[in-house]
Write a structure and sequence with these properties.
- The chain is an alpha/beta fold and 244 residues long.
- The chain is 40% helix and 28% strand.
- Strands 5-9-8-6-10 form a five-stranded mixed β-barrel, surrounded by four helices.
- Helix 5 links the parallel strand 8 and strand 9.
- Helix 1 packs parallel to helix 7, helix 2 runs parallel beside helix 6 and helix 3 packs across helix 7.
- Bound molecules: adenine (ADE).
- Adenine (ADE) binds next to strand 5, strand 9, strand 10 and helix 7.
Length: 244
């Protein structure tokens, strides 16, 4: 059983539609979270809409970890790395909570339960997601060009999460100087990574870049969410499921 989680309705919508088209979807509501058991590309899956932010994501991940053998998270993120631009895809090799700070008890961002700041994702799932992302970027090249975006690229590396939508260049500059190797910022991935790590459930995280986490993010993000996030998330998940 594979869990698929996204924070926003737009990010999960096309995946849900595909599951409904394929067969019966059994919905279960637990602790306020709607989980849908379904078949996607012939695989047994549980789909979950987590809601935005680390608490909502962690609660959803805990419920999923009781039901699945592996968990994939899809959605959008703001680009932080110099080369990471809207339309690109970032596959996380590790995830970190940029706003976690228990100093002076522990070093900045270190999670006391684990003793590290960076929680690694599962290498096999990450490799599958990179391959899926390469395929999806090639397929969507022309749609992105129609939106005025360049040729999409796939990146692998650090994704950082926090309970803040980063929409000023001051804030993204600060993140870049604190964490120079961070490729992208979002609001859930590292929380899901922490829960999966504790539960021993392999976790893969893939994000499509919707904005540059600066003053244009408030405009770029909703536009991108409507036009690109749903088809990208759908195609990434289906390509990954076919390879698992
Ligand atoms: N998700 C997409 N864009 C984001 C941003 N700029 N900050 C946080 N989460 C995001």
């Amino acid at each position: 059983m594979i869990g698929i989680v996204a924070a926003m309705r737009e990010e999960l919508g096309a995946i849900r539609d595909a599951a409904r088209a394929e067969g019966t979807v059994a919905a279960e509501r637990t602790a306020g979270v709607e989980l849908e058991r379904a078949t996607l590309a012939g695989r047994e899956v549980v789909l979950a809409l987590s809601g935005v932010g680390k608490v909502a994501a962690a609660a959803t991940a805990a419920l999923l970890c009781e039901r699945v053998d592996a968990l994939l998270m899809v959605g959008t993120a703001g680009g932080l790395g110099d080369e990471v631009k809207p339309g690109d895809v970032v596959v996380a090799t590790a995830a970190l909570q940029h706003d976690f700070d228990a100093r002076p008890l522990w070093p900045q961002r270190v999670l006391p339960g684990i003793g590290v700041e960076r929680v690694p994702t599962d290498p096999a799932l990450t490799a599958v997601l990179v391959e899926a992302a390469e395929r999806v970027c090639a397929e969507h090249r022309t749609d992105l060009a129609a939106l005025g975006l360049g040729t999409p690229a796939v990146h692998q590396g650090l994704v950082v999460s926090g309970d803040v939508f980063v929409a000023t260049s001051e804030r993204s500059t600060l993140l870049r100087s604190d964490l120079p190797d961070a490729l992208a910022v979002e609001m859930e991935g590292a929380a899901v990574a922490q829960v999966c790590h504790a539960a021993g459930v392999p976790f893969g995280l893939v994000r499509t870049i919707s904005d540059r986490a600066d003053a244009s993010a408030a405009i770029d993000f909703p536009r991108f969410l409507r036009a690109v996030a749903a088809p990208y998330a759908h195609d990434l998940v289906l390509a990954a499921l076919a390879a698992l």
